[in-house]
Specification:
Length: 100
């Protein structure tokens, strides 16, 4: 038997996965950070605030060295992730309002 060398695309995939995980972690941190201050916020306002923080970058510690495009789909995906984890909750009478 002869072992084949590792394929280069596998290393590229791992790097992409690592970058996506880092992006998700940063977005989740921004979401929780904003909601800790506001206590409750409409989901659309939260999305706009997170995107604005990503665009400014220099006002957020750790973000100035990372460059990534932050889209509303990414933020909403992280909101759903945090809802499933139990870090955030929706108001029963107003499901579009999120609470920390």
């Amino acid at each position: 038997l002869r072992l084949l060398p590792r394929q280069r695309y596998l290393r590229a995939e791992r790097a992409e996965v690592s970058a996506l995980e880092r992006k998700r972690n940063i977005l989740c941190c921004l979401i929780t950070r904003i909601l800790k201050v506001e206590k409750q916020l409409h989901i659309d306002n939260l999305v706009f605030r997170v995107i604005d923080a990503c665009q400014k970058g220099d006002s957020v510690p750790g973000l100035q060295f990372l460059s990534f495009c932050c889209r509303s789909v990414d933020v909403r995906s992280c909101v759903l992730h945090l809802l499933n984890q139990g870090y955030l909750r929706r108001q029963e009478e107003r499901p579009h309002v999120l609470e920390y």
